[in-house]
Amino acid sequence: LFAAVEMAPRDPILGLNEQFNADTNPAKVNLGVGVYTDANGKLPLLACVKAAEAQLVEAARARGYLPIDGIAAYDKAVQALVFGEGSPLLAEGRVATVQAIGGTGGLKLGADFLKKLNPTAKVLISDPSWENHRALFTNAGFTVDTYPYYDADKQGVNFDGMLAALNSAAAGTVVVLHACCHNPTGYDILPAQWEQVIAAVKARGLVAFLDMAYQGFGDGIQEDGAVIGQFVAAGIDFFVSTSFSKSFSLYGERVGGLSVVCASKDETARVLSQLKITIRTNYSNPPTHGAQIVATVLTTPALRAQWEEELAGMRNRIKKMRGAFVEQLKAAGVTRDFSFITTQRGMFSYSGLTKPQMERLRNEFGVYGVDSGRICVAALNEHNIGYVTQSIAKVI
Ligand code: LMR
Asked: Which atom of ligand 1 is nearest to the CA of 102?
């Protein structure tokens, strides 16, 4: 039966973890996967998460099936976070939100629904984009193409190229956009540029799908979510996937969501009914634990305040590491200007290092980054940054 089955390639990001774990180099550093580790290189268990978990254990409950669309309080909290507490959109009942298995799950639910809605539509992702975007939408049956995004010479965004591609896309094309902290480049577009993107989406009848996996890692929760308000103000229907993997350090709990903005309450009910079929036929209904923690934190004022503080702590530590990274590269004798690292946002830096350089870093020094040159700055700390920058100096 399986004689003709070919060996699939290793996942470009998660596959690195397997290789890293098997590496016996005591100096090894994992800057591959997008995971935040603290100043001591440890994956944090947030105090707000620990407190919420303790509350849940205290009032331990039996685990029945959740509703297909997830915990109601969780979905409501996701909406408040993404669209803003007092958003008229929510009062009008114009957002269908479902709990999803991580941000990836939210993307897949949206992709499956869109495929049913418009089977011939094409998907456009940024060039480059998160490695899994192409695979996920391809697997959902779409033809996936790219719009220009990264400008290597400018060390920024090729915005004219991006806009031109959107302005020539066919009606119904699904455009995957990174709401903030672009993965992998770390370069975001400005609010005024978002306005132009939104105008193109509206004029061409495109379907915007915002991937918001890093809300709070750019400038703050509200600040990073402002782009959603811009889409809402434009009066268009769109998709937003949410992830709490990073912002709650709950990677393994797979806590995410999908929100679909619709034109009316009636439309929302119909969209929600379709999303529920997608969920039911894939995994029936979502798991309890992670979403219960997030809902508890988001709806308990003291825990919510603690979370915001802890998230700010992660954001600020990453920013500090960006500055230190640039300085220590210089100190290690690198003459190339790497100051662009401090203008990038979020967990990643698109370092400009080539695939052979990334391979050398991995094979000779045990410094793991993605072949594209993406480095997870959120995994740098005072103990490993010297070794990392000296290793980079040697491969340049
Ligand atoms: C990443 O880009 O490293 C993260 O989003 C983790 C993942 O699932 O790829």
From this structure: 8
Same fold: 14-45+308-395 with 65-299: no
Q: What is the pLDDT of residues 259-273, one digit of tens each?
A: 999 999 999 999 999
**3-state SS string over the chain?**
CCCCCCCCCCCCCHHHHHHHHHCCCCCCEECCCCCCCCCCCCCCCCHHHHHHHHHHHHCCCCCCCCCCCCCHHHHHHHHHHHHCCCCHHHHCCCEEEEEEEHHHHHHHHHHHHHHHHCCCCEEEEEECCCHHHHHHHHHCCCEEEEEECEECCCCEECHHHHHHHHHCCCCCCEEEEECCCCCCCCCCCCHHHHHHHHHHHHHHCCEEEEEECCCCCCCCHHHHHHHHHHHHHCCCCEEEEEECCCCCCCHHHCEEEEEEECCCHHHHHHHHHHHHHHHHHHCCCCCCHHHHHHHHHHHCHHHHHHHHHHHHHHHHHHHHHHHHHHHHHHHCCCCCCCHHHHCCCCCEEECCCCHHHHHHHHHHHCEECCCCCEEEHHHCCCCCHHHHHHHHHHHC
Instruction: Say which CATH architecture domain 65-299 belongs to.
Output: 3-Layer(aba) Sandwich (3.40)
**What CATH number is given for 14-45+308-395 in this structure?**
3.90.1150.10
Read off the pLDDT of residues 370-389 as tens digits, 9 standing for 90 and up: 999 999 999 999 999 999 99
Question: Which ipTM was obtained for this model?
Answer: 0.94
* pLDDT reported for residue 140: 98
Where in the chain are the domains?
14-45+308-395, 65-299
Percentage above 90 pLDDT, the chain: 99
Atom of ligand 1 nearest to the CA of 33: 3
Residue to substitute in 13, 18, 31, 178 for testing ligand 1 pocket (most ligand atoms within 8 angstroms of CB)? 13
CA 204 – ligand 1 centroid, Å: 31
* Whether residue 130 lies in the annotated active site: yes
- Pull the structure tokens for residue 38: 């603290």
- Give pTM, 2 decimals: 0.96
